[in-house]
Amino acid sequence: MSNSFDLSRCSLNTATIKHATLTEAVTTAAAAGYGAVGLWRDRVQEVGAEEAGRIVRDAGLRVSSLCRGGFFTDLDVERTRAAVDDNRRAIDEAAAVGTGELILVVGGLPANPEPGMGVSPDAGQPERDLGAARERVGLRLAELVPYARERGVRLVLEPMHPIFCADRGVVSTLGQALDIAAPFAATEVGVVVDTYHVWWDPQLAASIARAGAQGRLAAYQVCDWVLPFKEDTLNSRGYVGDGYIDFEAITGWVRDAGYTGAVETEIFNTDIWERPFGEVAERVAADYAERVLPFLS
Amino acid sequence: MSNSFDLSRCSLNTATIKHATLTEAVTTAAAAGYGAVGLWRDRVQEVGAEEAGRIVRDAGLRVSSLCRGGFFTDLDVERTRAAVDDNRRAIDEAAAVGTGELILVVGGLPANPEPGMGVSPDAGQPERDLGAARERVGLRLAELVPYARERGVRLVLEPMHPIFCADRGVVSTLGQALDIAAPFAATEVGVVVDTYHVWWDPQLAASIARAGAQGRLAAYQVCDWVLPFKEDTLNSRGYVGDGYIDFEAITGWVRDAGYTGAVETEIFNTDIWERPFGEVAERVAADYAERVLPFLS
C-alpha cells in the first residue's frame, strides 16, 4: 500500500511485532511504506548479521538502531567478562547489519554471590549500592568504547523508567545518562530518548536540549504510557496517542535539539503481539503521521 | 511486650495494617513499643479528629503525620473547588489530631471534559500537559497555605515514584518538590522522603541535603522495593530489608540533613494486610531496629 504521508523517518522496531521473523518484520515495514526498521539481536541472529543487513537493504529500508547491548553492572568478575564479550559481539552485529547506533540497557542491581560462598552477610540478597552499580556503567563503557569506535559503532545509553531501576537499568534519567557519557566523545557514547521511559522527568526538556547541543542524541523511540496496567505490567505499553504522553511537546524538544534521525515505534504489549503484523504496522504509521510527524520538522 | 531497642522515633503508619480500626492500630503500636503512629484520614474520620487525637495521646503515642491531602491538579473549576475544600478539611483534621505535618499526594494528569461538551479534540482523553499540571500544584498551594498556617499545619509535598505520574502524583522527584516549595516559607511547605518513591533518584543525596538545609524535611517514610511485582502492582511493596533499597545510605543522608523526627513505616501490600496486626508491628519494629535505627543518629 502507499500512504499519503511521509514515512521516510518512520521506523518499525521489531519488538513491536515480537513474533515476526526478521524477514516478516522487514516485509511488513516495507509494505507499509516505512523508511527504516529497528532491530533486536534475536532477530538478527536468526539469519546472521550480514544476511540481516542484506535483507533490510534489499527491501529498501535502513536500520535505525540495534537493540541491545548492556547488562554489564554485575559485581562478579566472570559474569562481567562474559557481559563485555557479549557486548563486543553486539558491536560486531551492529556494524555488520549496517547501523552505527547500538542501544544499551545497562542492567540493574546485581545479585550478591549466593549463600555458601560466605563473602557477605547479604549473600544471596540484592547488592544495594546503587551508586556503585552506576559507576560500573562508566567502567564498562571505557572498556568497550575503543572496540566500538574501531567498528564505527556508537554506544547509546538508554535511560530506563525508574520502575526498572532494580532489575534492568540503573540509568534512570536522561541527565544522568549524559553525565555518564561525558568522559567520552559524542561519536563514542550517545543517548536515546524513549518516551515511555522519560516522559515524567521534570528536567526532560533541558536534558534533551543538552543532549542535542552535545551531539549525543542518537535515537528517538516512541510508545505511550497507558493505564491501568495489565497483569503483565511490563508488557503493557500502548500505541502512541492511547495514553498520557505529550508527543507534541517531547517531539518538539527532540526537533529543537537538532535531531534528524528516525523515529522508532517500540511497543511492548502482549495484546499487540497477538495481532496481524500488517495491522500493527498500519496503526503505528497512522499514529506516527498524526501524533509525531507534524512536530518533527 | 517490651523491646530492647529504642522505638521512640519508630512510627507505624495505619496503611501498613490497613484493615485495623484506629483504636486497633493505636493499641497495636503501643503494645509493640512504638513512639508514634502515622494516620490516614479514613481512620481519623472513623471516630472524628478530636477523638482520634485523644485515643493516640491516651496510648502515650505521638501523631507523626496525617495522610493525605492533595489530588488538586484538576482543570475543572468545580472539581478544583471541591478539592481545595477537602484539603481545608484535611488541614483541620491534622490540627485536631495533633500533628503539624499534612502529607500531600498532589494528583496526576486529569481527564479532559467528556465528549459532548465539545471543548477540545482530546475531550475524554487524558489532559497531557504535564508542565501545566505541575504549575497547578503551586497555584493550589498558594490558595491553601494561609489557611494551613493559621492552624499550625505544614503542607508536605510527597514526590511520588514516576510509576504514579499519570494518575496519582505529578511531583516525581524530591528536587522538583523543593522547586515547587521554594516560593513558600519552610514552615509552610515541606517535603517527605518516602524511600519507595525516591530511592532510584540519581540526585537523591543532594536533594535530601538541600531539603535539610532549607528546614523542609518534614517526614521520613520507609518501605522496600521488591520484585517481582504481584498482580496488584501498586500494593506490592515490601518490608524494609526484603528488597533493593539501601536503607543505610538513605537513612544516613536523612540524618546528615538534620532530621530528628519520626520514621514511619508505610507498606502497601495486600499479603501483609491479611496478617495479624501484632505480627506485622513486631516485624516492622525489628526491621527498623536492624536496618534504620543504627544509621539514624
From TrEMBL, chains A, B:
Stretches assigned to the Xylose isomerase-like TIM barrel domain: 28-279
InterPro entries, alphabetized: IolE/XylAMocC-like (IPR050312), Xyl_isomerase-like_sf (IPR036237), Xyl_isomerase-like_TIM-brl (IPR013022)
Taxonomy, superkingdom: Bacteria
Keywords carried by this UniProt record: Isomerase
A GO MF label: isomerase activity
One protein family per Pfam: AP_endonuc_2
The name this protein goes by in its record: Sugar phosphate isomerase/epimerase
Organism: Actinomyces ruminis
Lineage, broadest ranks: Bacteria, Bacillati, Actinomycetota, Actinomycetes, Actinomycetales
